[in-house]
Automatic annotation (TrEMBL):
Transmembrane segments: none annotated. Signal peptide: none annotated. This is Glycosyltransferase family 2 protein. It comes from Streptomyces glomeratus. Gene3D superfamilies: Spore Coat Polysaccharide Biosynthesis Protein SpsA, Chain A (3.90.550.10). Residues 3-151 form the Glycosyltransferase 2-like domain.
Length: 231
C-alpha cells in the first residue's frame, strides 16, 4: 500500500506521522517547497521523498499519486491532525470491494482541533456536494483511499485546494460508491496553510465552487472503467 503525504514545512510533525504509518506500507512524502528541512527529515526516517516545485495542495497530492505504484493508494495530511495508523480501517471498504472511494470523516477531539470558520465552510461544502452529486457526505476528509488506476483515469486537473473535491465529484459522476469512516481529528502541529485564517478558508471555498461548477463528464470511455460497475 502507498500513502501520499503532501508536505509543506512539517518538520515538527513528520517524526510522529511517519512512525504511525502501518507496517509494510510505503510513505510517499511530497515536499511542496519546504524551507524547514522537511524533505531531509522524511528521507532520514525512511520515507520515499518526491519534490513538487509547483505550489498547491493538489499539485503535491497528484505528484504523489503519479509516483505511487501500489494497487490501492491512500492520502493523509502530514500535520499530525490525523493518525496514519487508522488508514487500514479507512481503506477497508476499498480493500474488501464494498466501496470505490473511502473518506475519513473528521471527528474533532477538542474544539480547537477544528476552528469554527472551518467547520462552517465544511458544512457549506457538504451541502453543495449533495446538491451537485447526490452524495450525502458529511466531510471532505483529507484521509482517503482508492485504487490507483481508476483514480488516474479520473484525469484530475485542479492543483490547488479544489483537488480533494474534484476527486469526489468526478468519482460520483463516474458512478463510484463512496463510503465514510469516522476518524479522530486532533489539533494540527503548526499553523494550517488554509484553515489557519478566514481568508485562506474562504479562498479554498471559492476554489471548490469552481470545481462544483464543472459540467459532468459524458465520455463513454469513462463509464467503462467505473470501479463499481457490474458489482
Amino acid at each position: 500500500m502507498d500513502v501520499v503525504l503532501p508536505c509543506l514545512d512539517e518538520a515538527e510533525a513528520l517524526p510522529w506521522v511517519l512512525d504511525r504509518i502501518p507496517a509494510r506500507w510505503r510513505a510517499i512524502v511530497v515536499d511542496n517547497g519546504s524551507t524547514d528541512g522537511s524533505a531531509d527529515i522524511a528521507r532520514a526516517l525512511g520515507a520515499h521523498v518526491v519534490h513538487e516545485p509547483r505550489r498547491g495542495f493538489g499539485a503535491a497530492c497528484h505528484a504523489g499519486l503519479t509516483t505511487a505504484t501500489a494497487d490501492v493508494v491512500c492520502f493523509c495530511d502530514c500535520d499530525a491532525s490525523l493518525d496514519p495508523a487508522l488508514l487500514p480501517a479507512v481503506a477497508g471498504p476499498v480493500l474488501d470491494g464494498s466501496a470505490d472511494l473511502a473518506l475519513g470523516r473528521r471527528r474533532p477531539v477538542t474544539p480547537r482541533a477544528w476552528p469554527l470558520h472551518a467547520r462552517l465552510a465544511n458544512l457549506e461544502l457538504a451541502r453543495l456536494i449533495r446538491r451537485r452529486t447526490g452524495l450525502r457526505l458529511h466531510d471532505l476528509g483529507p484521509m482517503r483511499a482508492a485504487r490507483r488506476e481508476p483514480l488516474l483515469a479520473l484525469d484530475l486537473t485542479d492543483r490547488r485546494s479544489g483537488y480533494p473535491l474534484q476527486m469526489v465529484v468526478r468519482a460520483a459522476d463516474a458512478g463510484w460508491r463512496v463510503a465514510e469512516r469516522d476518524v479522530p481529528y486532533r489539533p494540527r502541529t503548526g499553523r494550517s496553510k488554509v484553515t489557519g485564517t478566514w481568508r485562506g478558508t474562504w479562498q479554498a471555498v471559492r476554489d471548490m465552487r469552481a470545481v462544483l461548477a464543472e459540467r459532468p463528464a459524458t465520455d463513454p470511455a469513462s463509464a467503462a472503467i467505473t470501479p463499481g460497475a457490474g458489482r
